[in-house]
């Protein structure tokens, strides 16, 4: 990659929660991609629809845990101790990010292969596989058309690309959604991802390297031995806005596990307001998070539950509205009793299992009973918003295990859907079932996932770099 071109993609990420010099860490810049839809309501309707499809997919995947193949622990990795020690010495990775689409997700710029090829990937804590749209040598079609629109990875152009054979133990027991078919021992390990909205991603697994840039000195290094998917066929709306997925889920084959193992066992992100201008950005960081040093963050257990993997779960004690603890059965928060709560960067609106949704939505609506209601499909509770209504907004607090409290800004649960109209931005999921804290409720907070110590730390921030 020419030095000038690389320079154009390098940016520094700093968060306004604290003015601290960045220590050894790996950083990728995040950009919120929101709708070029005709109206904001059209955009939010799209989010509502895609979130419900994703929630269905989450429930299906969790329900299939007992028949899935064994997944490697997140502490497992294939890199040498010498490489790990070298990277942990002083490395960080800032990458540029930026695009404008109609999805409700967050994206990173990612450099894969040797020499590096640049891609825009969905940053997804609910995925354990990193994959890119791909066209191996010999496949037909116009340039960029394989596996859908956008850029495609060319394996033959990368000297570090190494297919994983279907006869290996890794293919047979560790790789998510690997197919059992193995025509010959040397055949590549194939996968077929299926999503509840009908979207699919099909391809083969390989080992590959990513180019990272250090936060100290801007030096470039390689993360070797990454498990990636070369997706040769993708169908559906899930993938139109990106070139693939960056797997941040809890799994031995995820990018999060691989990179965190070399950068202090942790990663973090900070999501800008979901309605920010298209050029607003924030950071995905691997390694120490200096902005969490002052003031001290809220801390709770990061629950790694085999029943919920690859998703990250938290323990909820309850939800209060204006200080009143809502009557929600404890089993709703308990994965062992049909419930549980996950944080998911790929879901936009927060989705609560029906008993919790009814309690929260009713409590919010009672405190807004004097505000004129309006009908806005598909939301249940919407209001004609005025200055008088703004003075009546109830305060919602999510109480986590220990003393940690998530106190989201009002705009994260009473969302703007049109000029002068707000709706309760929380939706219902069937019970029994898992609840999902989406990225809108997570916005304007730094979230640090400490995989080594299984702790979740978070702190309010503007998330502006």
Automatic annotation (TrEMBL):
Transmembrane segments: none
Residues covered by the Peptidase A1 domain: 106-459
Molecular-function GO terms, alphabetical: aspartic-type endopeptidase activity
Keyword Protease: yes
Biological process annotations from GO: proteolysis
Signal sequence segment: 1-18
Residues annotated as the enzyme's active site: 124, 344
Amino-acid biosynthesis listed as a keyword: no
Record's keyword terms, sorted: Aspartyl protease, Glycoprotein, Hydrolase, Protease, Signal
Xref: PROSITE patterns: ASP_PROTEASE, PEPTIDASE_A1
The family this protein is said to belong to: Belongs to the peptidase A1 family.
Protein name: Aspartyl protease family protein 2-like
């Amino acid at each position: 990659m020419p030095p000038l071109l690389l320079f154009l993609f390098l940016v520094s990420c700093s968060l306004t929660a604290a003015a601290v010099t960045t220590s050894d860490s790996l950083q990728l810049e995040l950009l919120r991609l929101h709708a070029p839809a005709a109206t904001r309501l059209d955009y939010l309707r799209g989010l509502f629809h895609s979130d419900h499809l994703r929630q269905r997919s989450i429930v299906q995947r969790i329900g299939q845990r007992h028949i899935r193949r064994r997944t490697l622990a997140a502490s497992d990795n294939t890199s040498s101790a010498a490489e790990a020690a070298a990277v942990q010495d002083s490395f960080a990775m800032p990458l540029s990010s930026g695009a404008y689409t109609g999805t409700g997700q967050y994206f990173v710029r990612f450099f894969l292969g040797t020499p590096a090829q640049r891609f825009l990937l969905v940053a997804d804590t609910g995925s354990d596989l990193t994959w890119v749209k791909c066209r191996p040598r010999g496949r037909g079609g116009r340039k960029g058309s394989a596996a859908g629109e956008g850029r495609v990875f060319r394996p033959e152009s990368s000297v570090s690309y190494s297919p994983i054979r279907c006869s290996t133990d890794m293919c047979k027991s560790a790789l998510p959604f690997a197919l059992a078919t193995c025509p010959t021992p040397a055949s590549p390990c194939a996968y077929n991802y299926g999503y509840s909205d009908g979207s699919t991603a099909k391809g083969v697994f390989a080992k590959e390297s990513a180019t990272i840039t250090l936060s100290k000195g801007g030096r470039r290094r390689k993360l070797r031995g990454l498990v990636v998917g070369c997706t040769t066929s993708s169908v559906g709306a899930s993938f139109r806005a990106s070139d693939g997925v960056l797997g941040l889920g809890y799994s031995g084959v995820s990018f999060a596990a691989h990179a965190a193992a070399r950068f202090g066992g942790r990663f973090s992100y900070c999501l800008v307001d979901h309605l920010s201008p298209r050029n607003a950005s924030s950071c995905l960081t691997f390694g120490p998070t200096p902005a969490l040093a002052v003031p001290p963050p809220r801390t709770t257990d990061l629950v790694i539950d085999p029943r919920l993997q690859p998703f990250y779960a938290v323990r909820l004690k309850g939800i209060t509205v204006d200080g009143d603890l809502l009557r929600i059965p404890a089993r709703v928060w308990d994965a062992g009793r049909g419930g549980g709560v996950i944080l998911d960067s790929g879901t936009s609106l927060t989705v609560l299992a029906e008993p919790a949704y009814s309690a929260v939505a009713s409590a919010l609506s009672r405190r807004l009973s004097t505000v004129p209601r309006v009908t806005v499909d598909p939301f249940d509770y919407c209001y004609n918003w005025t200055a008088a209504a703004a003075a009546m907004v109830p305060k919602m607090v999510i109480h986590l295990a220990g003393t940690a409290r998530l106190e989201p800004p009002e705009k994260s649960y009473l969302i703007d859907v049109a000029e002068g109209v707000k709706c309760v931005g929380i939706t219902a999921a069937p019970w029994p079932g898992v609840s999902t804290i989406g990225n809108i409720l997570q916005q304007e907070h730094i979230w640090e996932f400490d995989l080594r110590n299984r702790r979740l730390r978070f702190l309010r921030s503007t998330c502006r770099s």
